[in-house]
Design goal:
single chain, about 80 residues, mainly alpha, 2 helices, about 70% helix, about 0% strand, elongated
Length: about 80
């Protein structure tokens, strides 16, 4: 497998990164929902809720996958 810019292949870091960004986006979408609701745009608010749920599910899945590789060498930095 190819390594990234840092020279490391770290699946755990990749999963943590996706999880972090999903959770961060979910937090931001809460504001988007409120903005749409305040503007009376219920269909757009519903869309933002849907996107928020997808990111929440993505973060949960990352958590499950991280648990699966915890304590193994599968997710850690690549050794040469």
């Amino acid at each position: 497998m190819a390594t990234g810019e840092t020279g490391f292949e770290d699946v755990a870091f990749d999963l943590i990164s996706v999880q972090y960004h999903s959770l961060k986006a979910g937090h931001d979408y809460g504001q988007y929902v409120r903005d749409a609701e305040n503007a009376g745009l219920d269909d757009i608010a519903a869309f933002f809720r849907e996107v928020m749920e997808q990111d929440s599910a993505r973060a949960r899945r990352c958590h499950e996958l991280l648990r699966n590789i915890s304590g193994t060498e599968q997710g850690g930095p690549a050794t040469q």
